[in-house]
Request: fold
Amino acid sequence: MKGFSEWFHTMTLGQTKKYIRLLLWCLLDSFVVSIPYAVMVLAVYVLLIPMSSPGLQLPLDRIWMLVGILAAQFISYLFVRKKSYLDFCIGFVGTTKTSRIEMGEHLRKLSMGFFSSRDAGDLSTVLLRDYSEIENFAQQILPQVATILIRFSLAIVVLSAFDVRMMLAVFIVIPLALPFALISMKRMEKEGELLQTSQQEAAAGILEYVGGIRTLKAFHMAGEHFETLKDTLNRQRQASVNIETKAAAPVSMLGRFVLNCGIGLVMAVGAFLMLKGQLPVFYYIAFLLLTLTIYDPVLSLFTFIADLTRTTRSGRRIRALLEEKPLPEPEKGEIPLGTEIVFKDVSFGYGDKEILHHVNLTFPEKSVTALVGPSGSGKSTITRLIARFWDANSGEVSFGGIPVREMSSEELLKNISMVFQDVYLFQDTIEGNIRMGRSNATHEEVVEAAKKAACHDFIMSLPEGYATMVGEGGSTLSGGEKQRISIARALLKDAPVILLDEATSSLDPENEVLIQQAISALVEDKTVIVIAHRLQSVCNADQIVVLDGGRVTETGTHEQLLTKNGVYAKLWSEQNHAGSWRIK
Ligand code: ADP
Reply:
């Protein structure tokens, strides 16, 4: 019972009570819809039988009673159908909408660690397909199953009143056909799992292919990569075919065969009883007609049973995702006192492998700290720990004197602006993209930020200025333009701490000057942490931190580090050498 109530809770997206209330209306609806069938059976009883005996009067009063029942049925049908159909549909669509929004909110709170372990195709399957499955199940299938079961119970009672032997002849084949439904369910489970994996692979493959198409084209690999995608799609097609040919079709055919045998059985038993004079001919006809109306829903019921595993899996995936724990949030978040950031003996790894080892660092308020070091030395990881995308495994990261774990993520992120290399722009207007920095900013404030970030001129040269739509991911803008828009966003946000990832790829000189100008506007009077790839751009920093293999090896100003003659001095001389290279 506990298992069932848990399952029911999952399949109704946690809205069990509301769902039961709506379901009761559906059952009432089904009862009202069944009344004409009952009238049909009564008609056999009260009309045909008297009429078959010569000399008997037509029972007019009974005819009027039946007409009256049908009229009452029609009127109550209108009322109940409105309640059950409209209220149910609207009610449950509302439930899935709320649950989807809750899921969106929940995903927003999950750590970056969670997202790096799941691919986008996997998550979009849950949000799109699993929710549709549940919607379909709760809105269509479950009410139908409940209706069929209620009708069966009524049919057993009514048919028993006529003739128990005939009732048994009608129902006896149903349990015999049940094993086929269960076999189908088992096979569906196995084939369904394969289908699902292939669907997820296909979804991820399509997202990757479309997302990376420019890179693929640039390297003349679009064709080759498409072959891989084609293989994935072929596997998905094969899995869809298998589920029909191996699981659904043979089993439903066998089920249908058994039920057809049932019709034969009812005919034979009825004929036998009629010949022996134990069953009136009109009862016989009524049983034959009702047998047909009973068997069709049985087949639908079997199909539903077979689908049950798939839908249950969808429900479980939704639940599992909702049960993923976000990084723990303090009950009452502390407010930071200033913006000094301190790493105290911090060690961290994304998985089992430790990436940062016992890092001790202080980023003083309103100063510029540059993080330098070879690729993979842990520079980005440090900025991610400041923004609490992950929690340190040991040691403590504090912000304005408060450990970041003790601040609400909202409070922490309010204080930080991040400008990264891989700028993502949303499918929105340019103004909408800049306004993401501060949603309540006025148009004038947006324009002012754009001017400081040196993007006003290029925006004005676009056909619709600030109202120009940006393609998904910012595909219609150049790299330099996207970067400046992201700086405008950060300027608008005006957070006291700026985490900056300097561009690795060299931009054209004009863009470079413009971006430098935009960054200078952004970092003025702020606590700045910049991941520097070119040392020349950071030799004026207040502090330079050199990282190597996840350890801080040197700290100091440019001059201090050069006199130390260590890693920094070596990097500096290497880059200066490289700088003298020119392609003729
Ligand atoms: P840097 O910014 O200095 O190039 P990172 O901080 O990005 O270095 O990376 C440090 C190490 O952590 C690298 O070995 C990198 O492969 C690994 N790493 C970075 N991000 C992840 C992640 N999301 N999951 C697992 N490993 C990661």
Summary: Residues 44 and 282 are 7 Å apart (CA to CA).
